[in-house]
Write a structure and sequence with these properties.
Structural class of chain B: alpha+beta
CATH class of chain A: Alpha Beta
Radius of gyration of chain A: 17 Å
Bound molecules: guanosine-5'-triphosphate, magnesium ion
Number of strands of chain A: 6
Shape of chain A: globular
Number of domains of chain A: 1
Number of helices of chain A: 6
Helix content of chain B: 40-55%
Structural class of chain A: alpha/beta
Order of helices and strands of chain A: HEHEEHEHEHEH
Oligomer: heterodimer
Largest interface: A-B, 26 and 21 residues
Number of strands of chain B: 5
Distance between the termini of chain A: 32 Å
CATH topology of chain A: Rossmann fold
Strand order of the largest sheet of chain A: 2-3-1-4-5-6
Order of helices and strands of chain B: EEHHEHEHEHH
CATH class of chain B: Alpha Beta
Strand content of chain B: 15-25%
Chain lengths: 212, 131
């Protein structure tokens, strides 16, 4: 895209935001690989639009391209909140193709890791440029205090983006929501199971309140 | 010419690049990231006396991703030690040759090698006190 068109686009985006209250906010779904971001994005999209966003997998880095679902209308207490959902690739600081070779051929594993690295870079780019709010998804069965989580939350905070922390996988025995709430006391933590659909009412209440 | 980072070596051969806050202050963001990744590519553990800004961290992740290459470079591992009255701070203070404990010490190494550093903590301590 030429510089001029890009400029024009960004000006029109800015004026859109200024003049139309209806312009849906772009909510990025972020978090480490395998946290359940796509499972959540699919559940939200299915609940309110009828179709899904992307594929879910127990193998990390299933999502390697950011995917957007536009105009998801969420109804809460007679009010409608419209958002765009962006499902992003899980963020990490390392990718080793050998982690996938049990599940696929070496060629496929190498390709998956190459796409994964591009996906992570893309997710970081969206975070810097293109999202208005963040849902940070964590697997509540795992230790939330990792460098990636701390760094990403710091990056999100430095951009002054509204953020909700979703403690996912509460259906698992090892799940601890408290551990997450204590790790990030400065933010609202919402427990849920995206897979089982547990606690989705509170999820939508919070989305409407934070991003409406 | 830019001065090099201070280099130290633990007895079992892990090289550590110590980059002081003062040194970091002289560098542009991209130079910091380059210096860190050059060290890590060489197999070193890089210790920053002063942490990176969130923006720099975000770029570090992006550049790291761009440089990952199968069988050659799997990325990085980062650990941050916040300012706290931990028993470590005197060690880290000495490590950086400072009086007080640093605000936020950042340790960056090749993926899956920070463990080596943990194992070496006493070695580093010994090394530093030898200076
Ligand atoms: N038990 C349980 N499993 C879940 C839940 N949500 C997701 N999962 C599982 O976790 C795995 C990863 O889910 P994804 O939605 O693909 O995770 P992701 O965060 O999109 O992962 P990447 O795209 O690789 O970053 C899959 O096997 C899901 O079925 C949950 O609430 N409970
Ligand atoms: Mg996904």
């Amino acid at each position: 895209m030429g510089l001029f068109t890009e400029l024009k686009d960004s000006i029109s985006r800015a004026t859109d935001r200024l003049f139309s209250e209806q312009e849906p906010k772009r909510i990025g779904i972020y978090g480490p690989p395998n946290a359940g971001k796509t499972t959540l994005a699919n559940r939200i999209a299915r609940d309110w639009t009828g179709d899904a966003i992307g594929t879910e997998s127990h193998i990390p880095h299933e999502t390697r391209r950011a995917r957007r679902k536009e105009n998801v209308e969420i109804e809460r207490n007679g009010k409608t909140v419209t958002i765009d959902i962006v499902d992003t690739p899980g963020v990490t600081t390392k990718v080793d193709y050998e982690e996938f070779t049990d599940e696929m051929s070496k060629d496929d594993a190498v390709r998956r890791s190459r796409e994964a690295t591009e996906g992570v870079a893309e997710a970081m780019h969206w975070l810097r440029e293109d999202v208005d709010g963040v849902i940070y998804v964590l697997d509540s069965a795992e230790d939330p205090i990792t460098q990636v989580n701390t760094m990403l939350i710091g990056i999100i905070e430095s951009r002054d983006l509204p953020v909700l922390i979703f403690a996912n996988k509460i259906d698992l025995d090892e799940s601890s929501v408290k551990r997450i709430a204590e790790a990030f006391p400065q933010h609202e933590t919402v427990p849920l199971s995206a897979k089982e659909g547990e606690n989705m009412d509170e999820v939508y209440d919070n989305i409407a309140e934070y991003f409406g | 010419m830019m001065p090099e980072a201070t280099e130290k070596e633990t007895p079992d051969g892990v090289q550590i690049d110590l980059i002081s806050g003062q040194r970091m202050d002289e560098l542009a963001s991209m130079e910091k990231i380059r210096m860190i990744l050059d060290g890590v590519h060489a197999g070193n553990i890089v210790i920053l006396e002063e942490g990176l800004t969130p923006d720099e961290e975000s770029k570090l992740i992006e550049v790291t991703m761009a440089e990952i290459s199968p069988d050659e470079f799997n990325g990085i591992e980062i650990e941050t030690y916040p300012r706290s009255a931990s028993k470590d701070s005197s060690l880290l203070g000495r490590l950086m040759g400072n009086d007080g404990p640093p605000a936020k010490l950042t340790v960056i190494g090749p993926a899956n090698q920070i463990e080596t550093l943990h194992k070496d903590e006493t070695l580093i301590s010994a090394l530093v006190s030898r200076n």
